[in-house]
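Action item from last week, closing it out:
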Amino acid sequence: MEELREIINKYGLQEDLEYIIIPLPDKNGKKRRCFLLKRQFIRIVDQEKNFVDYPLADAIEATVRYPDLLLSEALFQVYTERGTDISSLPFAPNKTAGIEPK
């Protein structure tokens, strides 16, 4: 959780007991915020029910840097800039990228 503390301080984010709160740029005069549960990973599921569990710190950074993109697209941008191969990411225990076990 130390990594989360660092990213919260780096971007000046808010938090409560359960959520990290990301203020987003105003859109049409409305204030927006994004609430991400404090978990080690965040799961993104596509229409075919394939899923990938991404580290929460990466999801926070992607949301802060690319607030108008879909999270999956923002994560792709962040990993591309870092030169990180998505297939080399640490996934949640007992979970793998792909189709959920039946």
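Closing note: Residues 93-102 have pLDDT under 50 and may be disordered.
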